[in-house]
Amino acid sequence: MNITVIGRGNIGGGLADLWEHAGHHVTRLGRDGGDIGAAEAVLLAVPGTAVEAALSSVTGLEGEAVLDATNLYGGSQPPAGFASNAEYVKSVTGGPTAKAFSTNFAALFGQIAGARVRPSNLWAGDDQAEGLVTRLSLDAGYEAVRLGDLSMAATQENLAGVLFSIAQSGLGQFAYRMATPEDL
Ligand SMILES: NC(=O)c1ccc[n+]([C@@H]2O[C@H](COP(=O)([O-])OP(=O)(O)OC[C@H]3O[C@@H](n4cnc5c(N)ncnc54)[C@H](OP(=O)(O)O)[C@@H]3O)[C@@H](O)[C@H]2O)c1
């Protein structure tokens, strides 16, 4: 699959490495922007307050499927008129959109492939994005768990504070797994 990542830092660069290892072709864009090209999937992994700037610096977004990994914390807000960054992204592209990969620590990406069981990867978004999120989660070593539709993206975006609080309360950076009773 052809994937373009917007943001090539911890999350964008880390997932690009994992997806390339899984056989995908990944193009990495930074703050200078560029063209989305022939991407079948786009990952947005810039600071949560830089989403408008980031999208305005790239071309070819119309109709693209976007997985938005951004978080908002410390009182930061999504673009005016939108409940979440992900819903803003959808308004720009018009394509299938998901908030995904926002609740896992990039620093642990290198250890996920060796996990005893696949950790979970929460996502919230459009039905049309489900196959993509499922596949790209698996190809990064995770199992996708749906939180809801795109109206739940704001809830997921604000989970960053919860994750940081858990990490700082003694556990350190962590992975998590949501399991059915049969899977315990
Ligand atoms: N780090 C984590 O563990 C983690 C986990 C879950 C979610 N997240 C979320 O993922 C997002 C990225 O985090 P990160 O840790 O990967 O950040 P990072 O390492 O600082 O990388 C940020 C990337 O965004 C680009 N960027 C910055 N400002 C931009 C702008 N105005 N326009 C376009 N691109 C811009 C940078 O471009 P250059 O390459 O040109 O500098 C860089 O490639 C954040 O929203 C964060 O909350 C992070």
Provide structural commentary:
This protein has one domain: Rossmann fold, CATH 3.40.50.720. Helix content is 32%, strand content 20%. The chain contains 7 helices and 9 strands. The strands form 2 sheets. The chain has a 7-stranded mixed sheet with strand order 2-1-4-6-7-8-9, with helices on both faces. The longest helix has 13 residues, at 159-171. It is globular. Bound molecules: NADP nicotinamide-adenine-dinucleotide phosphate (NAP). NADP nicotinamide-adenine-dinucleotide phosphate is lined by residues 7-12, 30-31, 45-48, 50, 53-54, 57, 69-71, 102, 105-106, 160.
Brief description of this entry?
Helices cover 32% and strands 20% of the residues.
